[in-house]
Amino acid sequence: MDRTGIFAGDDPFVIAREWLDEATKSEINDPNAMALATVDQDGLPNVRMVLLKEISADAFWFYTNYQSAKGRELEHSGRAALVLHWKSLRRQLRIRGNVTREDGAAADAYFASRSLKSRLGAWASHQSQPLESRGALMARVAKITAQKGTNPPRPDFWGGFRLEPVEMEFWADGAFRLHDRFVWRREGPENEWEIQRLNP
Ligand SMILES: Cc1cc2nc3c(=O)[nH]c(=O)nc-3n(C[C@H](O)[C@H](O)[C@H](O)COP(=O)(O)O)c2cc1C
């Protein structure tokens, strides 16, 4: 297959890391911002931005509140899709797969690495629930700060998710809208990837 340059290599996680590294140099902010798509219990799609925090050997990791709308949707369906769009590179990376909760040592370590204000904010926010006023949230932050002090533990309602892809598609802008697209597909982590070029 004529797959060279920015598409070279057989491990899609390696290519994803290379593209993210490039975007980190060229994007004006948040090169790791990605849209996370879920479906609710009625099958109605939902989408919002989250930050990609790690690309490990077989998964994409992000962090959130487990009781948020996305947290509930992810727990219910066990599936999600992601898309990263880098305007500066004119490239897109699409990812679909199975999602599992990551609420062990890795989540503790990531929580501990966040600023104190962010850690207290995670405690104070009942993410996706109605909020009567900004003042009510600030009052909760003050209360939590007094209760938890300067080293709050990770709340058990907040942590990571890992998405293990069964499909990853790399897209790069080409002349005359003749873009390059390559898709990697596999049944599960134990299977080999099948790689195909797609029509733009
Ligand atoms: C660039 C960007 C990055 C974001 N990153 C996160 C994130 O990593 N985790 C998170 O819970 N929310 C993040 N948010 C907020 C979410 O988009 C969303 O508003 C919030 O998580 C509630 O979504 P939900 O009600 O569907 O659960 C981010 C928003 C933006 C615009």
From TrEMBL:
One of its GO terms (biological process) is pyridoxine biosynthetic process. It holds the Pfam family PNP_phzG_C. The keyword Coiled coil does not apply. Transmembrane segments: none annotated. InterPro entries: Pyridox_Oxase, Pyridox_Oxase_CS, Pyridox_Oxase_N, Pyridoxamine_oxidase_dimer_C, Split_barrel_FMN-bd. It catalyses: pyridoxine 5'-phosphate + O2 = pyridoxal 5'-phosphate + H2O2; pyridoxamine 5'-phosphate + O2 + H2O = pyridoxal 5'-phosphate + H2O2 + NH4(+). Residues 20-146 form the Pyridoxamine 5'-phosphate oxidase N-terminal domain. NCBIfam families: pdxH (TIGR00558), PRK05679.1 (NF004231). Homodimer. This is Pyridoxine/pyridoxamine 5'-phosphate oxidase. It comes from Roseovarius halotolerans. The lineage of its organism: Bacteria, Pseudomonadati, Pseudomonadota, Alphaproteobacteria, Rhodobacterales. The gene is pdxH.
